[in-house]
Amino acid sequence: MSYLNSEDPALRRERVGWANGIVFDSRDSPILLDPTSGRRLQQDWNVFISHAHSDHTYGFSTQAKKYCTEETLWIYEALREQKVKNYHTMKLGETIRIDDFEVTALNAGHMLGSCQFEIVTPNFTTIYTGDINCVDTLTTQAAERKSCDYLIIEATYGHPSYQFPRRGTMYADIIRWAMTEIKEEKIPTFQVYSSGKPQEVIRLFNVYTKIPVVCNPTIARANDVHNDSGIKLDYLDSSTAEGGHTLKTGGCVYITTSSDHMPRNASRAVATGWAIRQAFRKCTSFPLSSHADYDQLMQFVASVNPKIVHTFTGYTDILSTQIERRLGIRATQLPVISQTKLLDFGEVTT
Ligand SMILES: [Zn+2]
């Protein structure tokens, strides 16, 4: 089933599909959600960016009009140390009207500033989840659930084998491991992305221990945005004299984005949902994820009760099959439009 090939004139009229991101053809000025490259986007196009992870932020480097939450903008600017032009920031719950479409930002629970987009078109309501997490964490609240006609949902961990332990259990495991390593005069060192996961891990040690946390300078810049946004993080920047001294003397946790400048006596760890099925060489792994696991995804779909689901990213086939079998809701992978036809957008979608 494709919106674009549908025999239902109402669906065809909505003209939704995939072309370098999820596209809604709103007549004069197309709406593009999380474009997957910055090429060919024109100044009058409307680009909505769901969160600040780099695989979702290609739109920031284009001349198109950008829409995102202010936290997403701030994290992006802090990490790249550059300013974005031609943007409009949205608060959660705020609605932007473009032609006869309305786009509303809803909390996605994935990282600071992350949002889903609800797109109300003349004939139906669509929700695009971006990356979602459906449980509370120390830095985010579970994704909002709102009913819709069409749901476009990520399937990163949409395989039944991905069942994450309770978050409290994982938090306890991480602290226990770190304390053991410190007792053995090692420095527990987490290698993570620069935003989202590191701030959750910092908050974990801040809330439940008195162990000092040292971060590399990139993560420190994202930390500043969290502090400015009300998520208090106590940490030292490794590029400062105090941070460097603490790393040398030990008795701390180190959080970094790469294997460069690993401290002496580092004991490496990763925190990722892939740890459920994947072994990592020479490091400890914790299945702490900022994404929903399989059960969360299925419960999310059931609770928003859409007529049709489209899956994107990861286990798209398996999740859509499971949704059809277990929930009785029509589900397929998101229909794909050839990128070469993007410039003939009007023709492709009629
Ligand atoms: Zn993400």
Distance between the termini: 16 Å
Low-pLDDT ranges: 1-12, 339-350
Give the number of helices.
9
Going by helix content, strand content and strand pairing, the class is alpha/beta
Overview of the molecule:
By secondary structure, this protein is of the alpha/beta class. Helices cover 27% and strands 23% of the residues. The chain contains nine helices and 19 strands. The strands form three sheets. The protein has a seven-stranded mixed beta sheet with strand order 7-8-9-10-11-18-19, covered by helices on one side. A six-stranded mixed beta sheet has the order 1-2-3-4-5-6. Strands 14-13-15-12-16-17 form a six-stranded parallel beta sheet, sandwiched between helices. Helix 2 (70-80) runs antiparallel to helix 5 (217-228) and helix 7 packs across helix 8 (316-327). The longest helix is centred in the middle third of the chain and has 17 residues, at 167-183. The two termini are 16 Å apart. Bound molecules: zinc ion. Zinc ion binds at residues 51, 53, 110, 131.
Question: How do the strands and helices of this protein lay out in sequence?
Answer:
Elements lengths: L8 H6 L1 E3 L3 E3 L6 E3 L12 E3 L16 E5 H11 L6 E4 L4 E4 L2 E7 L7 E6 L4 E4 L21 E6 L11 H17 L3 E5 L5 H12 L4 E3 L1 H12 L7 E2 L3 H9 L3 E4 L9 E6 L12 E3 L7 H11 L3 E7 L1 H12 L2 E4 L11 H4 L2
Helix pairs in contact: 2-5, 7-8
The protein binds zinc ion (ZN).
The site of zinc ion (ZN) has 4 residues, from loops.
